[in-house]
Design goal:
Order of helices and strands: HHHHHHHHHHHHHHHHHHHHHHHH
Number of helices: 24
Mean pLDDT: 87
Shape: globular
Helix content: 55-70%
Largest sheet: none
Length: 395
Amino acid sequence: MKSPGRWLTFGAIVFLMSCFFAVRQWRHANAHVETVLTTDFRRGANSEEVIMAELDAVGPEAVDELRAELRRQLTWWDRLQDQALIWLREHGCNWFNDARWSPGRVLSLRKRHALNALLSLGERAAAARPEIEALRSQSQDFGMAVSTLCALSPNDPVTISNAVVVLRKGGHSERSFLIGSFARIWTNPPPHLSALVDALKDSDQGVRSRAVRNLGSYGPQVVNVLPQLLPLLEDPSPQVRPQAAYAVGHIAPSEAARAIGAMLAEQRLNDPSWIDLEPYLLYAELGPRAQAAVPRLEEEFTNPTYQMGTGSIAYALWRVMGETSPRIIDALGKGAESYIQRSQLLSLRGLKEIGPPASNAVPALQRIAQDHRVLLRQMAQEALQSITNLPATTR
């Protein structure tokens, strides 16, 4: 019988050899597609706008690239590496619990990212239907596959009929994904919007939260659903209330005072991880009408707990107060280089809006203008043009 040391050496050798083959396998020929497939969907970390810019940069060929990813299968080397990782973890090497070391888990994540990208492309991705249909048999991706299939033909009567059935009577996975993707699939309020409104009363807080977020995406176009949204300002779930506050203010600016009051209450009492960037989006959108939020914004601006979100806070302060002080410019410059892309985009928009007074942020913008992601480069260049009054550079 081999000693534990020899087994560990054997496992390490198999692992290193498998890593070489895994890295060579996963790397995609198209850099834009690879950016999409390796994105990080941690809460708020990435923006749909960034993903769409990468897909648009590829053009129609993006669909073929994503279809190929959905067809990809594990090689025997990948399976061997997964087995070696299991063995190493069983023998105390917990460092290898990270998903990035497992080809099986990496492939699963990449397929989910490919599905998300095809959903975003919508009708332009109609050719991918066979690959998406094949994934419906895999329980892990079933709900997402159902939503993506709806996006391929959103106005087809059969699709709409099936979607309504899923929204009202489907399993938890498919309902959650379809409700969470509703506004991306039907970019304008569709005739079957009532099926989404019904989800506001669902017993699952995650479903209610997704329904509120998607209804809010339509803005004033769905002001008629305001009576159904207002009670959710006092929903028992801390996951739902901030979404409801933002949705109310976005859909009905006349209810700005109520929305701001509800959001401020959430900021005082709720876990920041549930609230995300919704307060800053709401206050920035309402602008000077959100003066009541300034004391809270000032408090968060200097609180280390909110350090990663200071760019978003600074953007809200700029939109509400019109302040262009060095502290605001500095915070926007740091926010523009944040790993949280939604915060990056807000910060970049703020710097572009401020223009020449934001000259201290030029070094940060010049660095972002070299970023490998299309939208971030473009927005940094537009902000630089606004600040320096020089023509934008096309990259």
